[in-house]
Structure formats: structure tokens, C-alpha cells
Amino acid sequence: MDEVTTGSEARQIVRRARCAGCSIGLVPTMGYLHEGHLSLVAAARHETDLVVTSIFVNPTQFGPNEDFERYPRDMERDRQLAAATGTDLLVVPSGTEMYPDGPQGQRVWVEPGPLAKYLCGASRPGHFRGVATVVAKLFAMLEPDRAYFGEKDFQQAAIIRRMARDLGFPVEVRTVPTVREASGLARSSRNVYLSGEEREQASVLRAALLEAAGNIAAGERDPSALEAAIRSRIASGAPAARVDYVSVVDAQTLQPLEGYIERDVLVALAVYFGGTRLIDNITVSP
Ligand code: AMP
Predict the structure, then answer these.
(1) In-domain check, residue 231
(2) Which of 1, 105, 242, 275 is the right S-S partner for 83, CB 3.0 to 4.6 Å?
(3) CA separation (Å) from 186 to 119, 171, 232?
(4) pTM higher than 0.85 for the full model?
């Protein structure tokens, strides 16, 4: 595995590979790799010739009171995991590589548009602008044919797909199913913040989403009734939880439903355990 810290070194390797006829697969991450990230690397390994994994904790997608400073980092472990699972090129850009004038000096941004209006976009103002902008920078730097994102961050993947389309990046955006712990809890770098008790209670999130899918399968079409059932399941199963949002939205537009469920929906939630914010979702066809 090669490892580089600058765009010019990365581009040299990527362009050489492309000239040799190789396709390029990109897995953008913020590091502290876990099995969720590794399933994206595996998908890229399966579908493309040169697998590029990037690690960059992007300051512009964190709010002022969020965990940018204390976001978990372990470069040595990440390096080993990335290599062991088939990364060819590990790109670990510096802050100035990604933001030449610093995050505060960035003047031109990618505005993520209406897909960012609800769900995490409503709770975390500016988050998806930071995400879309940094992913655009990575696309420009690494010129991938395919880029891999997790369904756990469904809204993020939808925004990136739309960005590629609207800005004309010749990148196919691929999504990979959420990897979970045995309890059902979605794997996340932030799970290390959870106490044992919180981690146990957090398994109720998946259970509540599955129950909602079951209710839809059984004929429930009222989004408010589904949301209420999820909230009450969380309240009873996880007394330590504080719900940020529970929302049933159109799976294409990510807008709240006007009336009853008629098309595919995304049932999504964000829940705090102490200072740790966890997200999860499920897509359901009525
Ligand atoms: P992050 O490092 O949290 O920014 O995540 C990098 C990529 O990994 C994003 O595309 C995430 O959606 C994806 N990802 C994170 N957790 C999981 C998971 N449990 N299963 C699948 N993909 C994930």
C-alpha cells in the first residue's frame, strides 16, 4: 500500500494507474476505521482496480459545539486495517492541503440544496455544505470512477449523488449496506464514546426501525403514527436516550410526507446518548 499526504503525489499515482487502464475506486472516510468502512473498501476492491482510501477529519462539517477536536483518531491502526483489507493508496491530506487558507478562509462552497433541508441537515446547520465541499475536493484531487458511501449516512449519499450529477463529476456513487454489531447497533467511530450501559440501550434504535418496517408491512400508512411508535419504543427501551429526530420521509426527495405513505420511504432517526449522537435508518416499500 502506498501512502501520501499531498494531492500532487496522489494524482501522480492515480493518473499512472489510469494510463495503465485501471479504474479508480475512492472510499472517503474520517478514519478510526471499523467494519463499516472496511465493507466500503471491500466493495471498491471488488469493483475497481485501484482502491484509494482517504482519511481526513473534515473541520467544516462539524458544528461549533460538536466533537471535531475530540473525534477519535488512530492512524497506526487505520494504516494496518486499510492495507489488510485491500487499499492500494491511502491518502491522508493535511489541513492546508484541503483548505489552503484554512477552514475559515474557504470562500467557495458546494451548497447541497433541498436534499439537505430536513433530517440531519435541519439538526446540523452547515454540516452537508462541509461534506459536499470536501467530497468535491476529493473528487477533483483523485478523479475516481466510483466512490463508495454507507447507507448509514443515507442523506449524505443522496446529496453526494446529486452533487456529482449537478456539477458533472464523472463519478458513479455507490452505496453499501450498513454494517452492524451483533446487537443491531450500526457501527460508528463514535460508538467508542458510549458507556457499556448506553451501548446496550442503543440497540433499541435498530429494533424500533425494524418494528416500523413491520408496521408498514402490516398496513400502517400514517407517518405520524409510525414516528410516535418509534419514539415510544425508544423511551421504553433506552431511558438514557434523548431523541433528536424521528422522521418518515420520501426516500427520493427526503422531504416529509404530506399525507399517507404511498411510495418508498426512509425512516430515519438521530438520538443522543449523553453527548454522543447516533443515527440510523431503514428504507421501506409500502
Ligand atoms: P465516516 O468516517 O464516519 O465519515 O464514514 C465514512 C464512510 O463510511 C461513509 O460513507 C459512511 O456512510 C460509511 N460508514 C460509516 N459507518 C458505516 C457502517 N456501519 N456501515 C457501512 N458504512 C458505514
Answers:
(1) yes
(2) 1
(3) 18, 27, 20
(4) yes
Count Cβ neighbours within 10 Å for each residue of 132-144 and write b for 16 or more, e otherwise: bbbbbbbbebbbb
Residue 152 DSSP symbol: G
- If one residue of 32, 38, 40, 87 were mutated to test the ligand 1 pocket, choosing by the most ligand atoms within 8 A of its CB, it would be 40
Q: Residue type for 264, please? A: D
- Is 127 one of the annotated active-site residues of the chain? no
Q: For each of the chain's 286 residues, which pLDDT tens digit applies?
A: 999 999 999 999 999 999 999 999 999 999 999 999 999 999 999 999 999 999 999 999 999 999 999 999 999 999 999 999 999 999 999 999 999 999 999 999 999 999 999 999 999 999 999 999 999 999 999 999 999 999 999 999 999 999 999 999 999 999 999 999 999 999 999 999 999 999 999 999 999 999 999 999 999 999 999 999 999 999 999 999 999 999 999 999 999 999 999 999 999 999 999 999 999 999 999 9
- As a whole number of angstroms, the distance between CA 113 and CA 1 comes to 37
Same domain, 164 and 193: no
Beta strand segments in 151-218, E: 172-176
Which residue, judged by its Cα, is nearest atom 7 of ligand 1?
29
Which residue owns the Cα nearest ligand 1 atom 18? 36
Domain boundaries, position 57: 2-176
Q: Say yes or no: 168 and 207 in one domain.
A: no
